[in-house]
Amino acid sequence: MELLKVSAQSKPKAIAGAVAAAIRANGTVEMQAIGAGAVNQAVKAIAIARGYVAPNGINLVMRPAFVDLEIEGIQRTAIRFTVEPR
Q1: Domain spans of the chain, in order of start
Q2: Which pLDDT tens digit goes with each residue over 49-67?
Q3: Where are the beta strands (DSSP E) in the chain?
């Protein structure tokens, strides 16, 4: 399963394209976001990706979950979105 890391500066349309491609290739994808801005961009990207794959008869759903990470020795909490077809 592919893991896409999303930041607050990520472009939602670019992420949406990557999500759509991963869904078509693998059937599922995970997105990881740390911080409010990154979560905002990730959610927008999922909404856009739904429009990209809808003409192929694919309806996307997402499952959010909290994940504890250690980045440069600091404990951080991220939100990981699992995106898959219904």
Answers
A1: 2-85
A2: 999 999 989 999 999 999 9
A3: 2-6, 29-33, 60-71, 74-85
